[in-house]
Amino acid sequence: MNLNLNLDFLEKATVKDKAFLSRQLATMLSSGLPLDRAVAVLASQTRKKVIKDTLNDINRELESGQKFSTAISRHPKVFDRVYVSIVVSGEAVGKLSEVLTHLADTLEQENNFNTKISSAIMYPVFILVVMLVIVFLMMTKVVPQLTEIFKESEAQLPWTTKLLIGASGFMVDYWWMVIIIVFGIIIGIYLFLKTETGGFMVNKIQVNLPGGIGKDIYMSRFARTMGMLLEAGTPIIDGVKITADVMNNRIYKRSLNNVASQLERGIPMSVPIEKDPYFPLVVPQMVMVGEQTGKLDEVLNKLAGYYEEQSSDKIKGISALFEPILIVIIGIGVAFIVFSILMPIYQIVQLQ
């Protein structure tokens, strides 16, 4: 029997993928290649199934006479509302290649920012995972062997050793229960986060992370998205609504929907933002400058760069702080295990 495990459904179109597609399309269009032909070439070259299937669908839509923006709008998992809106603006002014180049630049900046964050977080997470694996192996392989020696010697065991032996015995005898408990906790947390209450709680924690890092990350996303949309010619009210949808945070989505409703009443964007506690004071001040000078897109792009730098520096600082904390925690754990094992062995040697 031939078992073919197909995991293509797990593939996702990343920011890097979209940046590459945008850059390649812009290059081919500026070289004079027709749009449908450019899409077909990209589809034949890509190896990722989700991208290939999407591009093939888009190519069929183009050949049937549909606009590029209409075709990509039918694939929201690859091309979000921001991407589609900017392409619409590019088609309207007949500068699709220039707009795609700008999209590629912005997406590459976003990818670089995301990579910096991931790199800063990766080391502490790796150390933590290794520590947990080592502890699990010791509890299930090393401690059970030593337990037999301690039982034969009939030595008086300290409470730390008894605790270690008890925990090890539970993990060895009831490993299936440990797995059920762990998976139960994971599933319970997942289901809770899917609720409105759970999602809002997590969003609030994200915004109020220590050092203001959460707000910095969301402000960089807000400023980058709004700046890109306004620069492409998207009306400001539509831009705010689209940005609200892509913020992935209920708090900022509610705030930006309020900003959009205020804009519809003729109130400048800086006014409701200034009253919102989730926006740092510098944001409405800079937005006000952009409104007064008529260069709101430029101001927002500069603001995005500022907050991306701030976020990156803060994450590096927190990551550097985590390293000694993890070392201390590992040291305490190792000391506890060593003390729990060596003390009884020392007592056994003394009795002999």
Give an account of the 3D structure.
The chain has 352 residues and is an all-alpha fold. It is built from 15 helices and no strands.
Detail the topology: elements first, then pairings.
Elements (H helix, E strand, L loop, with lengths): L14 H16 L4 H11 L3 H15 L4 H6 L7 H13 L2 H58 L5 H15 L1 H20 L1 H12 L5 H19 L4 H11 L3 H15 L5 H6 L6 H12 L2 H56 L1
Helix pairs in contact: 1-2, 1-6, 2-3, 5-6, 6-7, 6-15, 7-8, 7-15, 10-11, 10-15, 11-12, 14-15
For the secondary structure, the number of strands is: 0
What gap, in angstroms, lies between the N and C termini?
61 Å
What is the helix tally? 15
> Which residues sit in consecutive blocks of at least 5 with pLDDT less than 50?
1-10
Query: What string gives the helices and strands in order?
Result: HHHHHHHHHHHHHHH
* Rg value: 28 Å
Shape: elongated
Biggest sheet layout: none
Overall pLDDT metric: 84
Structural class by secondary-structure content = mainly alpha
Fraction in helix: over 70%
Proportion of strand residues? under 5%
Q: Can you summarize this structure?
A:
With 352 residues, this protein is mostly helical. Helices cover 81% and strands 0% of the residues. It starts with 14 loop residues before the first helix and ends with a helix.
